[in-house]
Design brief:
Shape: globular
CATH architecture: Alpha-Beta Complex
Number of strands: 7
Pfam families: 2_5_RNA_ligase2
Largest sheet: 7 strands, antiparallel
Order of helices and strands: EHEHEEHEEE
Helix content: 10-25%
Protein name: 2'-5' RNA ligase family protein
InterPro entries: Cyclic_Pdiesterase (IPR009097)
Number of domains: 1
GO molecular function: ligase activity
Distance between the termini: 21 Å
Keywords: Ligase
């Protein structure tokens, strides 16, 4: 499986990693425990069986719209076999446009194989994962630092670049550059 992911600006990445650290120090599940070198804050736009060369060329053009605004806005919890605690991503018009273009590029290329339907535009719930595990709970206060001009669980920044992650070989490759 290969993903198409957006990567945040350096300040946002540091802030997310700081929340990972605080979760870990509080004895809670945290992405900080995931030590693989490809682990970093990201937003998954789509996943497919493979990304064929023609689609990579299309994605390069789609991703020319970067950077686009980034808004992390409160936490969300997903439950299932594995629970996920995440920072919700507010999907503004620019992000929705970019997501739709990526989804369409993959959907219209049969050689990419099966797409994960949870990333379809009508189902997509954009988020940045903070923790994964069987018993992930929403933490109390104190994990999010309040910016000088806003609430503690809201952060503004930019999505500045993109990559693909290949789950078979566990490697990440820049996209659109």
């Amino acid at each position: 499986m290969q993903t198409v992911e957006l990567l945040p600006d350096a300040t946002t990445e540091r802030t997310v990693r700081e929340v990972w650290r605080r979760l870990s120090e509080a004895g809670l599940p945290s992405q900080a425990a995931h030590r693989h070198p490809t682990n970093r804050p990201h937003l998954t736009l789509a996943t497919a069986d493979t990304l064929v060369p023609e689609v990579r060329v299309q994605l390069k053009h789609v991703l020319e719209d970067l950077p686009v605004p980034l808004y992390l806005d409160g936490t969300v919890r997903f439950t299932g076999r594995t629970s996920v605690l995440a920072w919700a991503v507010r999907a503004d018009a620019a992000l929705l446009h970019l997501h739709e273009a990526v989804w369409r590029a993959l959907r219209d290329a049969p050689a990419c194989g099966r797409l994960n339907p949870i990333h379809a535009p009508e189902r997509w719930q954009p988020h940045v994962t903070l923790a994964r595990g069987r018993a992930v709970a929403c933490p109390g206060t104190g994990l999010f630092s309040a910016p000088p001009d806003g609430p503690a669980d809201v952060l503004a920044g930019q999505w500045v670049s993109a990559r693909t992650y290949d789950s078979t070989v566990r490697s990440a490759t820049p996209l659109g550059q």
